[in-house]
């Protein structure tokens, strides 16, 4: 019981024991069950503050990454994990894919290594869409270069799609299926059209929730987790 609640609530087992003593935990009709009770997590009905805790093997969170935060798990600077509220935090959580310190927007945090590997694997061609603000309008020649691939050293950096968005500033949606270091900044840099702002808006079929403010995060629904792997080219 205490192990189950600790993993599902993201709380230490000593904390969980306090919750049980305080009468906040119920197993079926039994209030304050023994922390040692053996559970069948899939079948037993466990409640915390009156709410049913359903067993989830893995955690999947959507974060609206603000600028100025690094996508590492541990760093001297502030990391994306520092933004996760305690009730959503779980040991082993890491960002599935990195964004530069100054890039904002959609980020998935999970403790499911196989899922992260699948969605980041270049061979799966899962789309990642970004809103990119550049210095000036993209010329037809530049557009062709970005879509057919820019050669930088031994890498060929390619965009899967590039669409002008309806803004007064030169803002485009760029879709990638690769995920190379500073890819978008380097691609536009090679065209002498530096990026001034970059925000990820979609991963596969999962779109950044417009209700999520910068620095906020929430759990993904099972449908949303599936949607990530749905859209590929
Ligand atoms: N491309 C970049 O240059 N930076 C990111 O953070 C993501 C894609």
Notes on the protein architecture:
There is one protein chain. With 233 residues, this protein is an alpha+beta fold. The protein has three domains: 51 residues, RNA-binding S4 domain (Structural Genomics Hypothetical 15.5 Kd Protein In mrcA-pckA Intergenic Region, Chain A), CATH 3.10.290.10; 87 residues, 2-Layer Sandwich (Alpha-Beta Plaits), CATH 3.30.70.580; 76 residues, Alpha-Beta Plaits (2-Layer Sandwich). It has six helices and 15 strands. Strands 5, 6, 7, 8, 11, 12, 13, 14 and 15 form a nine-stranded mixed β-sheet that branches. The longest helix is centred in the first third of the chain and has 9 residues. The protein is elongated, with a radius of gyration of 21 Å. The site of uracil has 8 residues, from helix 5.
Report Rg.
21 Å
Kindly report the oligomeric state of this protein.
Answer: single chain
CATH homologous superfamily (4th level) name of the largest domain: Pseudouridine synthase I, catalytic domain, N-terminal subdomain
Fraction of residues in helix: 10-25%
Number of DSSP-assigned strands: 15
Terminal CA distance reads 44 Å
Low-confidence stretches: none
Please write the string of helix (H) and strand (E) elements: HHEEEEEEEHEHEEEEHEEEH
Based on helices, strands and strand pairing, what is the structural class?
Answer: alpha+beta
**Total domain modules:** 3
Which molecules are bound besides the chains?
uracil
Main beta sheet: 9 strands, mixed
């Amino acid at each position: 019981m205490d192990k189950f609640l600790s993993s599902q609530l993201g709380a230490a087992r000593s904390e969980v024991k306090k919750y049980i003593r305080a009468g906040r935990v119920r197993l079926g009709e039994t209030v304050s069950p023994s922390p040692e009770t053996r559970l069948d997590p899939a079948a037993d009905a466990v409640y915390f503050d009156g709410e049913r805790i359903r067993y989830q093997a893995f955690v999947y969170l959507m974060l609206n990454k603000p600028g100025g935060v690094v996508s590492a798990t541990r760093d001297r600077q502030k990391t994306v994990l520092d933004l996760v509220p305690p009730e959503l935090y779980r040991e082993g959580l890491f960002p599935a894919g990195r964004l530069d310190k100054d890039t904002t927007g959609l980020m998935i945090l999970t403790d499911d290594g196989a899922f992260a590997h699948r969605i980041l694997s270049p061979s799966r061609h899962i789309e990642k869409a970004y809103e990119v603000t550049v210095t000036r309008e993209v010329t037809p020649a530049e557009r062709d270069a970005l879509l057919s691939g820019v050669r930088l050293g031994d890498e060929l950096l390619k965009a899967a799609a590039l669409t002008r968005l309806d803004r007064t500033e030169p803002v485009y949606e760029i879709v990638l299926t690769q995920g190379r270091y500073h890819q978008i900044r380097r691609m536009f840099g090679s065209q002498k059209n530096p990026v001034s702002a970059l925000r990820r808006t979609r991963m596969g079929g999962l779109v950044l929730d417009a209700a999520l403010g910068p620095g906020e995060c929430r759990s993904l629904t099972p449908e949303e987790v599936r949607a990530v792997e749905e859209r590929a080219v």
